Task: structure prediction
Amino acid sequence: MEMINAIGRRKTAVARVYLTKGEGKITVNGRDYREYFPHIHVQHNVTDPFVVVGVEGAYDLKVNVKGGGFKGQAEAVRMGVSRALIKLDPEFRGALKAKKYLMRDSRAVERKKFGRPKARKRFQFSKR
Result:
Protein backbone atom coordinates (compact mmCIF):
# COMPACT_ATOMS: atom_id res chain seq x y z
CA MET A 1 0.00 0.00 0.00
CA GLU A 2 1.30 3.40 -0.94
CA MET A 3 0.96 6.60 1.04
CA ILE A 4 -2.48 8.23 1.01
CA ASN A 5 -2.71 11.95 1.65
CA ALA A 6 -5.64 14.27 2.42
CA ILE A 7 -6.31 17.78 3.70
CA GLY A 8 -8.55 18.80 6.59
CA ARG A 9 -9.55 22.33 7.60
CA ARG A 10 -11.23 23.96 10.60
CA LYS A 11 -11.34 27.69 11.46
CA THR A 12 -7.88 28.86 10.35
CA ALA A 13 -6.13 25.50 10.87
CA VAL A 14 -5.00 23.38 7.92
CA ALA A 15 -3.85 19.77 8.38
CA ARG A 16 -2.05 17.70 5.75
CA VAL A 17 -2.44 14.01 6.60
CA TYR A 18 -0.32 11.13 5.26
CA LEU A 19 -1.64 7.60 5.94
CA THR A 20 0.49 4.46 5.53
CA LYS A 21 0.24 0.83 6.61
CA GLY A 22 1.85 0.35 10.03
CA GLU A 23 1.30 -0.28 13.71
CA GLY A 24 -0.68 2.81 14.77
CA LYS A 25 2.04 5.43 15.27
CA ILE A 26 0.65 8.98 15.02
CA THR A 27 3.07 11.88 14.53
CA VAL A 28 1.98 15.53 14.46
CA ASN A 29 4.59 18.10 13.35
CA GLY A 30 7.40 15.66 14.16
CA ARG A 31 6.14 14.89 17.68
CA ASP A 32 3.89 12.20 19.13
CA TYR A 33 0.26 13.30 19.05
CA ARG A 34 -0.11 12.82 22.84
CA GLU A 35 2.74 15.27 23.35
CA TYR A 36 1.47 17.75 20.73
CA PHE A 37 -2.15 17.63 22.01
CA PRO A 38 -1.76 17.21 25.80
CA HIS A 39 -5.51 17.31 26.57
CA ILE A 40 -7.26 13.92 26.51
CA HIS A 41 -10.50 15.21 24.98
CA VAL A 42 -8.54 16.76 22.11
CA GLN A 43 -6.53 13.56 21.55
CA HIS A 44 -9.81 11.72 20.97
CA ASN A 45 -10.51 14.01 17.99
CA VAL A 46 -7.40 12.63 16.28
CA THR A 47 -8.13 8.94 16.93
CA ASP A 48 -11.96 8.91 16.62
CA PRO A 49 -12.11 8.23 12.84
CA PHE A 50 -10.03 5.05 13.32
CA VAL A 51 -12.31 3.91 16.16
CA VAL A 52 -15.50 4.60 14.16
CA VAL A 53 -14.41 2.43 11.21
CA GLY A 54 -12.69 -0.16 13.45
CA VAL A 55 -9.11 0.01 12.16
CA GLU A 56 -7.29 1.48 15.19
CA GLY A 57 -3.65 0.42 15.33
CA ALA A 58 -3.51 -0.67 11.68
CA TYR A 59 -2.15 2.50 10.06
CA ASP A 60 0.62 4.99 10.74
CA LEU A 61 -0.24 8.65 10.50
CA LYS A 62 2.05 11.58 9.75
CA VAL A 63 0.44 15.01 10.05
CA ASN A 64 1.63 18.53 9.26
CA VAL A 65 -0.69 21.11 10.79
CA LYS A 66 -0.47 24.90 10.96
CA GLY A 67 -2.66 27.83 11.89
CA GLY A 68 -5.36 28.21 14.51
CA GLY A 69 -5.40 26.91 18.06
CA PHE A 70 -5.01 23.41 19.41
CA LYS A 71 -8.73 22.54 19.22
CA GLY A 72 -9.11 23.78 15.64
CA GLN A 73 -5.96 21.92 14.66
CA ALA A 74 -7.22 18.69 16.22
CA GLU A 75 -10.53 18.94 14.37
CA ALA A 76 -8.70 19.70 11.12
CA VAL A 77 -6.64 16.54 11.68
CA ARG A 78 -9.86 14.58 12.32
CA MET A 79 -11.29 15.73 9.00
CA GLY A 80 -8.07 14.92 7.15
CA VAL A 81 -7.89 11.43 8.66
CA SER A 82 -11.51 10.80 7.72
CA ARG A 83 -10.88 11.85 4.12
CA ALA A 84 -7.76 9.66 3.92
CA LEU A 85 -9.67 6.63 5.25
CA ILE A 86 -12.33 7.12 2.57
CA LYS A 87 -9.62 7.15 -0.12
CA LEU A 88 -8.39 3.89 1.41
CA ASP A 89 -11.81 2.22 1.44
CA PRO A 90 -15.01 3.92 0.17
CA GLU A 91 -17.09 1.63 2.44
CA PHE A 92 -16.01 3.76 5.43
CA ARG A 93 -17.90 6.79 4.10
CA GLY A 94 -21.28 5.95 5.67
CA ALA A 95 -19.99 5.57 9.22
CA LEU A 96 -17.82 8.69 9.04
CA LYS A 97 -20.58 10.77 7.46
CA ALA A 98 -23.03 9.73 10.19
CA LYS A 99 -20.60 11.14 12.80
CA LYS A 100 -20.23 14.35 10.66
CA TYR A 101 -16.45 13.95 10.40
CA LEU A 102 -16.52 14.82 6.70
CA MET A 103 -18.41 18.09 7.12
CA ARG A 104 -16.34 21.27 7.02
CA ASP A 105 -17.32 23.30 10.09
CA SER A 106 -17.22 26.81 8.62
CA ARG A 107 -17.76 28.73 11.86
CA ALA A 108 -15.03 31.30 12.39
CA VAL A 109 -14.53 34.48 14.40
CA GLU A 110 -16.62 37.40 13.16
CA ARG A 111 -14.59 40.44 12.21
CA LYS A 112 -14.52 43.59 14.32
CA LYS A 113 -16.50 46.49 12.86
CA PHE A 114 -15.35 50.11 12.98
CA GLY A 115 -16.97 52.35 15.57
CA ARG A 116 -17.46 49.40 17.92
CA PRO A 117 -15.24 47.81 20.56
CA LYS A 118 -15.87 44.27 19.21
CA ALA A 119 -17.82 42.61 16.41
CA ARG A 120 -21.30 43.23 17.87
CA LYS A 121 -20.71 44.93 21.20
CA ARG A 122 -21.47 48.64 21.40
CA PHE A 123 -20.02 51.37 23.56
CA GLN A 124 -22.07 52.26 26.66
CA PHE A 125 -24.93 54.63 25.89
CA SER A 126 -25.05 57.81 27.91
CA LYS A 127 -28.34 59.69 28.02
CA ARG A 128 -26.79 62.82 29.56
The first helix runs from residue 33 to 36.
